[in-house]
Each structure stands twice: as structure tokens, then as C-alpha cells.
What we know:
Layout: E1 5-8, E2 24-27, E3 32-38, H1 52-70, E4 77-85, H2 89-103, E5 109-115, E6 125-132
Parallel strand pairs: 4-5
Antiparallel strand pairs: 1-2, 3-6, 4-6
Amino acid sequence: MTQMITRLNPPSLPDAGALGYSQISIVEPGRMAFISGQVAARLGGEPVPADLVEQAGIVMANAKAALDALGATPRDIAILRIYVVDLTPERLHLVMPPLLAMLDGAQPSITGLGVAALAGPDLQVEMELTVRLPD
């Protein structure tokens, strides 16, 4: 059986694999899902925590719940985009551990973007996913 997604880190590009992601993801034909930006919103409607790490944990849990609803795993993610308000190396360092924990060894292509604001005034991190659905 062919792999649904092949990961590449060519020697002509920086070694993204050492950081937990891939420079290139080649997706075999199949059904795709596009998961809307997940934020630190909770089912019970509790307030968004002020702490960036807590928000990142909720975002990852919401992304995992979306994957579960599709019958997919982190290995099925072709690319994810993560948006962080006022992104700095320090803030990225805080967001990466919950992200890598959610990925559980999968190394999709990742784009990190610093933004001035998100859809809600208390939101600090948002993540969207493009997923190749398992057969």
C-alpha cells in the first residue's frame, strides 16, 4: 500500500525534521478535509485563559477532536498553519511543546505566522489544518 503522505526534507533546504516538521508533504490522491482555525474555545463556554501555554493546549485538544471526528490522526495532516499574536522566538518556544505533543511524532509541513490580532480580543493562538482523509 502506498503511503498517503510522503514527507521530504531535501538536503538543499534547512533540516526541518530536526525541529519536528517537514519542508515538503506530497499527498496521494484522495479525499481532503480543511479544518477551520481552532482557538481556545471550550464546549462549556468557559472564558479563554490568559496564559498562552494554556490556550495552546486547548487549541491542540480542539484540533485533535476535529481529527478524531474525521477518523484521522496527526499523521494525516498535510499542512498546518499556526497563527500567534505578537509572535517572538520566546512565544514560539511556548507554543511548540503542546503542538509537538499533539503531533505525536508526525511531521507535517508547518507554517507559523505572527499576527497582530485574531477574531477575539483574548485569543492568542489559532491553528488550521489540511488533512488527507484515511481510506
